C-alpha cells in the first residue's frame, strides 16, 4: 500500500504527542477563558475558551512540525499511488513503499516495471506557493536549496538497479522520477543530475509515452525479482 510506513510513522508520532497537545490546549483555553469571564462574564469566557480550543486544534493541524510533515508525506504517497494504479497492469507492475536493502530505515516510495523501463519514483509535497527551479546547477524550492532530494532519489535508484542486476545476472537501468505535489514548477518539469521532476499528475503519462524497451517476459522477470529483494517497508 502506498504511504503505509509514512502513515504508520505519523500515527506513532501523533500518539506520542497527544497528551502533551491536549494538556497545552486545555491550559491555554482555561486561562484565557477565566480571564475573559472575570471581565466580561462567564458566557463570553466560555466562548473565548471554545474558540481557543478550536484555533489550537487547527494550528496543530497545519504547523510544519514532524507530525504534520509525516501526515502530508503519507497523503502525497497515496495520491501518487492512485495515479500509478491507472497504468495498464498487463504491461506495468507497480510496487509501493518498499524497503531498500542497503539501509534499514530507508525506503522507496514507488517502483514501476513496465514495457518502457524501470522507474524509481519518489513522492514529495511542497507548500502551495513554493517555486521549484534550477539555478547555478542546484535545485531550489523557493529561497532554499534542496540538493538532497535528487541525491537521495538517485541513490535509491542506484541501489535498486544494482540489486536487480545482481539478482538477474544482467544490467538493469533504473530511471529516477520525483512526483511533485503542490508548489510551482515549469510545465515540462525539471531535469537535474539525471533526475526527472514532474508534477505528480503527469508522472504516469511520462512513463506511458516513452518507447518500449522491454518485452513482457522481461517485465515479469524484473518485477518478480523486485518483489523478492524489496520487501514492504511496513513489514520491516
Task: Give a quick summary of the entry.
The chain folds into two domains: 4-66, no CATH class; 72-229, Trna Endonuclease, Chain: A, domain 1 (3-Layer(aba) Sandwich). It is 52% helix and 22% strand.
Q: What features would you describe in this structure?
A:
The protein has 236 residues and is of the alpha+beta class. It has 2 domains: 4-66, no CATH class; 72-229, Trna Endonuclease, Chain: A, domain 1. 52% of the residues lie in helices and 22% in strands. The chain has 6 helices and 9 strands; from the N terminus they run αααββββββαβββαα. It has a 6-stranded mixed β-sheet. Helix 1 packs across helix 3 (66-84), helix 3 runs parallel beside helix 5 (200-209) and helix 4 crosses helix 6. The mean pLDDT is 81.
Give the total of domains: 2
Number of helices: 6
How large is the share of residues in beta strands? 15-25%
Uncertain parts: none
Topology of this protein?
Layout: H1 4-40, H2 42-62, H3 66-84, E1 92-99, E2 107-114, E3 117-125, E4 132-135, E5 138-141, E6 144-145, H4 148-168, E7 174-181, E8 190-192, E9 195-199, H5 200-209, H6 216-229
Amino acid at each position: 500500500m502506498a504511504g503505509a510506513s509514512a502513515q504508520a510513522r505519523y500515527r506513532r508520532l501523533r500518539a506520542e504527542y497527544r497528551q502533551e497537545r491536549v494538556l497545552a490546549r486545555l491550559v491555554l483555553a482555561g486561562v484565557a477563558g477565566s480571564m475573559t469571564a472575570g471581565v466580561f462574564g462567564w458566557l463570553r469566557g466560555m466562548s473565548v475558551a471554545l474558540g481557543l480550543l478550536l484555533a489550537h486544534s487547527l494550528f496543530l493541524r497545519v504547523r510544519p512540525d514532524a507530525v504534520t510533515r509525516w501526515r502530508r508525506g503519507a497523503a502525497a504517497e497515496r495520491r501518487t499511488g492512485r495515479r500509478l494504479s491507472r497504468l495498464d497492469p498487463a504491461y506495468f507492475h507497480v510496487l509501493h513503499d518498499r524497503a531498500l536493502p542497503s539501509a534499514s530505515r530507508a525506503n522507496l516510495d514507488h517502483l514501476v516495471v513496465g514495457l518502457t523501463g524501470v522507474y524509481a519514483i519518489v513522492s514529495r509535497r511542497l507548500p502551495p506557493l513554493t517555486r521549484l527551479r534550477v539555478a547555478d546547477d542546484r535545485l531550489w524550492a523557493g529561497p532554499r536549496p534542496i540538493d538532497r532530494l535528487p541525491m537521495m532519489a538517485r541513490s535509491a535508484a542506484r541501489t535498486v538497479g544494482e540489486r536487480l542486476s545482481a539478482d538477474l545476472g544482467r544490467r538493469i537501468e533504473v530511471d529516477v522520477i520525483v512526483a511533485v505535489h503542490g508548489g510551482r514548477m515549469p510545465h515540462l518539469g525539471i531535469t537535474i543530475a539525471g533526475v526527472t521532476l514532474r508534477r505528480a499528475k503527469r508522472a504516469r503519462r511520462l512513463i506511458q509515452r516513452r518507447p518500449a524497451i522491454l518485452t513482457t517476459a522481461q517485465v515479469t522477470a524484473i518485477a518478480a525479482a523486485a518483489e523478492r529483494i524489496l520487501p514492504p517497508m511496513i513489514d520491516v
